[in-house]
Design brief:
Layout (H helix, E strand, L loop, with lengths): L1 E4 L2 E4 L10 H5 L2 E9 L2 E2 L2 H14 L8 H14 L5 E8 L16 E7 L6 H6 L1 E5 L20 H12 L5 E4 L5 E4 L3 E6 L2 E3 L11 H12 L4 E2 L5 H5 L3 E6 L3 E8 L2 E2 L7 H16 L2 E2 L3
Parallel strand pairs: 7-8, 7-14, 11-12
Antiparallel strand pairs: 1-2, 1-6, 3-4, 3-5, 4-16, 5-6, 8-9, 10-11, 10-13, 13-14, 14-15
Bound molecules: 4'-deoxy-4'-aminopyridoxal-5'-phosphate.
Length: 290
């Protein structure tokens, strides 16, 4: 595998960053997780748009343009013959000193890794996932805004550990007010009386690209979509529940905190959206081949 770092390709073994990079020392940087399907990079523009929003929020000046990053992502896929896979795009603050001050860092570094994706086991897509609410809450907007897709994922990592300790693969994270925010790496949706609901972004969710795509697909199907504040009670009394993310795609949830959701099996609205989503991924995106 060849890894892109600052305009050059390096063999996997030699793809390295400095131990003085503030991405490593302080989690000072941003990233995107992107998918390629059927020889196309899915929603590439949306991912790069979000990357630039994260950059702006942390006053990081991305050293190459939006168009250049798009081209570099596609080129890295082509170079690695990745037609269906997962792309990790990272921009670190760059090499600096042992103090926090980002002004002491030289140039930000752009890293692109195009690899295979490891999904949840296929069986979970079929039968649904069991998840739990964990004690670690989502970051406050006033502390580290959850909309920033930063390299500082410790909040999510802690929640993931708590889910794993409870024997689950994913965790529901509440915000400081006790409303449902999202999961550690996925947005959450419920279906109630034929209506699709997901927490508002103000509840502390990432502006998920899969979330946006699924909301659009539901609207196209005539399913009403809204973004109310949701509590655990709303989840427990939902007819269906599912999670969305670039990596996870759409995965049904059948049990939350020991309560079966709806019939306890993945529901029909979820199944329809899964089907629509898969069809879309096969035909849209930035072509990888020349
Ligand atoms: N929430 C968090 C915390 C995430 O890290 C992600 C991305 N893995 C998502 C939601 C889903 O976002 P997207 O659909 O853009 O991948």
């Amino acid at each position: 595998m060849k890894v892109y770092i600052d305009g050059q390709y390096y063999d996997e073994r030699n793809a390295k960053v400095s131990v003085f990079d503030h991405g490593l020392l302080y989690g000072d940087g941003i990233f995107e997780g992107i998918r390629a399907y059927n020889g196309r990079v899915f929603k590439l523009k949306e991912h790069i748009d979000r990357l630039f929003c994260s950059a702006r929020a942390i006053l990081l000046s991305v050293p190459i343009s939006h168009a250049e990053i798009m081209r570099a992502v596609v080129a890295t896929c082509r170079r690695n013959k990745v037609r269906d896979g997962y792309i990790r795009l990272v921009v670190t603050r760059g090499r600096g000193t042992l103090g926090l001050n980002p002004n002491r860092c030289q140039e930000p570094s752009v890293i692109i890794i195009a690899d295979k994706i490891q999904l949840y086991p296929a069986e979970l897509y079929q039968n649904g996932l069991e998840i739990v609410t964990v004690p670690t809450t989502r970051n406050l907007h006033s502390a580290l805004n959850p909309a920033i897709k930063s390299l500082n994922y410790l909040n999510n990592v802690l929640a993931k550990i708590e889910a794993n300790n409870a024997g689950c693969e994913e965790a529901i994270m509440l915000n400081a007010e006790g409303f449902v925010a999202e999961c550690t790496g996925d947005n959450i949706f419920i279906v109630k009386d034929g209506r699709l609901q997901t927490p508002p972004l103000s509840a502390g969710a990432l502006y998920g690209i899969t979330r946006q795509t699924v909301m659009q697909l539901a609207q196209d199907e005539g399913v009403p979509v809204s973004e109310p504040n949701l509590t655990r009670y709303d989840l427990f009394n939902a007819d269906e529940c599912f999670l969305t993310g670039t990596g996870a795609e759409i995965i049904p949830v059948v049990k939350i905190d020991g309560r079966p959701i709806g019939s306890g099996k993945p529901g029909p609205v979820t199944a329809k959206l899964v089907q629509q989503y898969h069809s879309l991924t096969q035909v849209s995106g930035e072509p990888i081949d020349d």
